[in-house]
Design brief:
The protein has 462 residues and is mainly alpha-helical. The protein has one domain: Amino acid/polyamine transporter I (Up-down Bundle). It is 75% helix and 0% strand. It is built from 18 helices and no strands. 49% of the residues are buried. Bound molecules: tryptophan (TRP). The site of tryptophan has 17 residues, from helix 1, helix 2, helix 5, helix 10 and helix 14.
């Protein structure tokens, strides 16, 4: 059935850069700091790290393994690995939903990636200098109210992504991450040093590492799990497809630990870049987009060399976003190309065009379509516009469902011996421990969280 021989990453390092690039994104630098803020700091950070270790690493291993066993794109992987089982059609469908999920995520992710590009431009052109009180709120509100501007910058991020994808694994994805990831790291380190020079480090340490266990409940657990899955690019065929390009002689457990470690490290470091300058300047910890798009520009405007560091900060966000959008775009293209339906270039174009429509609707739901609530049959959904829905359904709901099903699939359906050989851990206690986690612990835990998500609410009921 396969018409094209899949390209492979040229080395373990190339894979690591790409996978870390996927994991490190708006989730780390834009979302993680404000979620920590909303959930009271230290306790949430601890809970988050626990979730990454207990569920995150085993699930990254799971998804990489499903991808690499047959070295085929996601849908085909599910079909081939359930060969001869009565449930095969169901698993093929699971493959299908797992490539639709990242497309839903891109529907809103491209819009936010566009904001970051727009901010780089705004600082360069001086639109964010010499600000009066409250003016950054106005700049952000104006952007949200400008459909044309939003769509322009969203389109730019989409075109860059589709272009990289169209060139293939080695000439496209690998080259992009080889350039963007070192830059990203360099900028991040410079920002932390800059922050450290300006004070506020002690407060940041206290805030991030002093746990207040009163703040931990089922709701924070759900939040931490959702954030960890999103940040590790789980539940959406990304790790499947990146795993399918991984040469057979590279250790999956090592790669999974590397990705999880780097991703968590960057999220924490992002906190150390952002919180100190907020604390030293006596600003409030805003939640949501406000933190990065309203509070930080005020501070950059007032600080020495603030303009330079402001540009660097939003470039950092943009680079982090692009290395993630390519990983969300690749699964669909990989499947279309393999079926011989389109060449890679045509597939990039077709998927890109579809996504452009979706992301445009998302951009419009910040202004002209703000009050259009398409789904009215459910209490939680009836007040959500398109962008809210895409985020809620794909980044919260479907991601959990896909991750749960991937764990059940590898734990219960796929042949144990094949998995054992693929992981290279031997029939050790480590292998058995990992397998128990994905066979039993993950299904129970995610199942429980999903029940809550579906609105039964017995976990979070006041
Ligand atoms: N992990 C990225 C971030 O933190 C986003 C991302 C890339 C993603 N691929 C994904 C999220 C797959 C969920 C699923 O921003």
């Amino acid at each position: 059935m396969s018409h094209v021989v899949q390209e492979k990453w040229s080395s373990g390092t190339a894979f690591l850069l790409a996978a870390i690039g996927s994991a490190v994104g708006l989730g780390n630098i834009y979302r993680f700091p404000y979620i920590v803020g909303e959930n009271g700091g230290g306790a949430f950070v601890l809970l988050y790290m626990a979730v990454v270790i207990v569920f995150g690493i085993p699930l990254v291993m799971t998804e990489l393994t499903i991808g690499r066993l047959k070295q085929v794109p996601p849908i085909t992987a599910f079909t081939q690995l359930s060969e001869g089982k009565k449930s095969q059609p169901f698993w093929t469908l699971v493959g299908f939903t797992s490539i639709l999920t990242p497309l839903g995520i891109l529907g809103f992710y491209f819009v936010i990636a566009g904001w970051t590009l727009n901010y780089v431009y705004s600082i360069i052109t001086g639109k964010l200098s010499d600000l009066q009180e409250g003016q950054t709120q106005q700049v952000f509100a104006d952007l949200m109210d400008s459909p044309g501007t939003l769509i322009f910058w969203m389109t730019l991020s989409l075109v860059i992504t589709a272009f990289i994808i169209s060139r293939g694994i080695k000439a496209g994805l690998e080259r992009a991450v080889n350039i963007l990831m070192p830059l990203l790291f360099l900028i991040l380190v410079s920002l932390v040093i800059y922050s450290a020079f300006n004070g506020g480090m002690v407060e940041t340490f206290e805030f991030m590492f002093t746990p207040d266990f009163e703040k931990i409940n089922m709701k924070t657990l759900l939040e931490a799990t959702g954030q960890a899955f999103f940040s590790l690019s789980l539940g959406s065929a990304t790790m499947l497809v990146y795993g399918s390009y991984l040469p057979k002689d590279i250790s999956i457990p090592k790669m999974a630990c590397g990705v999880a470690f780097a991703d968590t490290f960057v999220a924490l470091i992002a906190g150390f870049a952002i919180f100190p300058i907020i604390f030293t300047n006596g600003m409030e910890l805003a939640s949501g987009p406000g933190l990065v798009f309203e509070t930080l520009p005020v501070i950059f405007d007032q600080m020495p060399f603030g303009q330079v560091f402001g540009i660097m900060f939003f470039l950092l966000l943009a680079f982090a976003a692009i290395t993630s959008t390519i990983s969300l775009f690749e699964p669909a293209v990989s499947n279309l190309e393999e079926r011989g339906i389109f060449t890679r270039r045509k597939a990039s174009l077709v998927v890109g065009a579809g996504l452009w429509v979706l992301a445009s609707l998302s951009a419009l739901s910040l202004n002209v379509l703000k009050d259009w609530h398409p789904l009215t049959f459910n209490d939680t959904l009836k007040n959500q516009n398109i962008m809210d829905l895409l985020e809620y359904l794909s980044a919260n709901g479907m991601m959990l469902v896909n991750a749960l099903l991937a764990a059940i699939f590898l734990g219960w359906i796929v042949n144990r011996k094949a998995v054992l050989d693929e992981l290279g851990l031997g029939d050790s206690w480590l292998f058995k421990f990992w397998r128990t986690i994905i066979k039993v612990v993950v299904p129970i835990a995610i199942g429980y969280l999903l029940l809550d998500f579906l609105g039964y609410g017995f976990l979070t009921a006041e």
